[in-house]
Polynucleotide 5'-hydroxyl-kinase GRC3 (Collybia nuda), 488 residues
Amino acid sequence: MTSEDKPVDAREWKLEPETEYRFELDPGTSLAIKLVRGYAEVFGAELAEGKYYIFGSECKAAVFTWQGCVIEVTGHASTEYLSEETPMAAYANLHIAFEQMRVRALRTLHRSPSYDDDPSANTEPPRVLILGPENSGKTTVSKILINYAVRAGQGWSPLLVNVDPSEGGWSAPGAISVAPVHSPLPTCSPANPLGSAATSAPTALSSNALLPLVYWYGHAEIKRNPLLMDRLIRNMGENVNEKYDVDIEGRMSGLVVDTPSSFASGPGANEHRQKLIKACVDAFKINVILVVGHEKLNVEMQRTYGAHLTVVKIPKSGGVVELDHGYRERVHNYQLHTYMYGQIIQAPPGISSATLGGEALTDLVLSPSSTVINFDDLSIFRIGAETMAPSSALPIGAARVVSEMQPVPIDPAQSGSGLLNAVLAILAPPNPDENERYDEEILDLTVTGFLIVTNIDIPHRKMTILAPNQGSVVGKTAIVGSFEWQDQ
Ligand SMILES: Nc1ncnc2c1ncn2[C@@H]1O[C@H](COP(=O)(O)OP(=O)(O)OP(=O)(O)O)[C@@H](O)[C@H]1O
């Protein structure tokens, strides 16, 4: 593009070294950012010079520069400013420490210790758990650390584990997931906070798409069913360890676990919180806990885990935006829309050859298919009863009628089944060996995709489902949670 093609409302920002340009977008608006000169990155992912990056769906983010740069910004941001105070130097120091751990671990694996290696030093790669209260920037820190590892040029593919079901990660809200990251994760929209995954994206993306392993929890809030969350975390850990058993070199890249804020604080949930942190520490063999800007939690973690693993308090960025309940609900809608239709963000006026997080805009459009199926084609379950009193609210000695972990079959023919507009997770097939089956097996199966029930025709025993692909669901098992979505 020549300078004459510059969009009318384009404005240039000059960033001094170690500063960042922060922005927040309103619903329905988008922003295009082009690096004119110098070096810049968005949460650790480098921007290429001269290319437009589009941000939308109420994205809030920052362009940071180590060396200084000039960026051109087009479109309307509801808030935009430069900040000289960032925690990036602290985050970079952490990255350097983790990089040393990876290199040392790999050298030990290859039995080629360096002369300056301390024989008593830890020879494990970094397996990092990130904890912090709401809006402390946990996901952002996870992304920065992962992106720096990927950019180190050593061929690392660290695992990013997302156990925050309210966030959606690579799939749909309500899910938790893990994926090895091979190239930096872009930021362009909260609908895809961790970049695009291959499960719903078109094949054009497969070159740099991620193949996440997904489990379905089904709710945004941990307190809905902490026992289930505990089990899913442990299942995921087992899966990761099995992968590591066969990919010993891959293990050296380490992993980062991003957690929900309810692990850090929350009224009355102390016991669950402790148990779930412990579940993560055990499942992923955590050796470093990072606490983002929370003194009390840092002290608590030091006390509980300090003797066996490293606990570090890290600063919170002043740029992290407080996200309210309404915003989070809108993001869940953006995520489900993106899951079905792909990433569609209109570039600001005047931007044509735009790219979105490195992908051409047209590559990210999907067309979901609507199919009519018989009630009997799909077995649908809910985990635990819908209206469940907490154990503490039951009379002393009373047992639950339905356990929190019991898969309860749902009959779509029953009015009030709660299936209309519900998000259903389709599960991987059970063990083909009948002898290996067990009652609660569906709690342990991974997710292969999601669909929405858009119509229920009780007289004809049929329902309409919307899914991003046309694969048949006949004979499959699905789980419903508490997420609903309507195409608007
Ligand atoms: N330096 C920054 N400048 C501008 N926006 C930022 C910055 N750092 C983080 N944000 C934005 O602030 C929001 C909250 O950050 P993030 O999601 O990392 O926090 P979190 O602690 O993981 O949140 P949650 O409460 O959902 O667990 C996100 O939209 C993120 O993109």
Residues 20, 22, 60-62, 132, 134-140, 164, 190, 260-261, 317, 319-321, 323 surround adenosine-5'-triphosphate (CB under 6 Å). Confidence is low (pLDDT under 50) at residues 198-209.
